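Format notes (please read before filing issues)

Several people have asked whether sequences and structure tokens are stored in separate files. They are not. Every record keeps both together, in the order shown below: the sequence lines, then the token lines. Line labels are part of the format and must not be stripped during preprocessing.
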Amino acid sequence: MPYPIPHWSQRGLQNDQPTSGRSQNPSTDAATGSELSKNDKNLIDAGKLYTTAEAAHMLRISPRTAERMRVEGGGPPFIKLGNGSRARVVYSGADLLAWIENQKRSSTSEHGR
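Then the structure lines:
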């Protein structure tokens, strides 16, 4: 079942720059190039795979932060498709949802679970 995520502020969208040379339009579906409705932009589909830029957008972090979390740990689980430097990294929607749930805290002094 899709999980609703909060809307990005306009300022937040303008400041996010993808790390790849490709242009990323958050209101366009990367696979089909079709326009997404407001409801579609706020859903994480547990059965879908997301690129680093897409996952970062949904988690409201920069793609560079997602990349750093992969190296240092502490971020959502990722899948590496292929071998070597040309391997593609994707994130499972189910893993993103589980990671979000695991980030819940009752106090700022609480440590991760």
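For reference, the curators noted about this record: Helices lie at 10-15, 38-41, 52-59, 63-72, 93-102. Residues 6-41 have pLDDT under 50 and may be disordered.
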